[in-house]
């Protein structure tokens, strides 16, 4: 699964949404979020992101790990 990190905050370029084959990316107030229950880990979003904000979960830097929890909370509270 993929996670969108801090580089997306306030940037919100949106190319990731256009390339996602399963429509698992939504725009939140301050960034885009990937629904980890729907993501098929195809990597299309990571390649399309112009600010390198998207990471495969296992490659997510330690200081960015809380963005996974932030995405889970976003979809839980919808």
From TrEMBL:
Cofactors demanded by this protein: [3Fe-4S] cluster; [4Fe-4S] cluster
Keywords: 4Fe-4S, Electron transport, Iron, Iron-sulfur, Metal-binding, Transport
GO molecular function term, any single one: electron transfer activity
Domain 4Fe-4S ferredoxin-type positions: 30-59
Protein purpose: Ferredoxins are iron-sulfur proteins that transfer electrons in a wide variety of metabolic reactions.
PANTHER family to which the protein is assigned, alphabetical: FERREDOXIN, OXIDOREDUCTASE
Name of the protein in its database record: Ferredoxin
Organism classification: Bacteria, Bacillati, Bacillota, Bacilli, Bacillales
């Amino acid at each position: 699964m993929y996670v969108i990190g801090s580089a997306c905050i306030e940037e919100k370029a949106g190319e990731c949404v256009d390339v996602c084959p399963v429509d698992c990316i939504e725009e939140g107030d301050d960034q885009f979020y990937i629904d980890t229950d729907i993501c098929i880990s195809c990597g299309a979003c990571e390649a399309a992101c112009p600010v390198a904000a998207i990471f495969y979960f296992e490659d997510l830097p330690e200081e960015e790990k809380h963005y996974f929890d932030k995405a889970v909370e976003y979809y839980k509270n919808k």
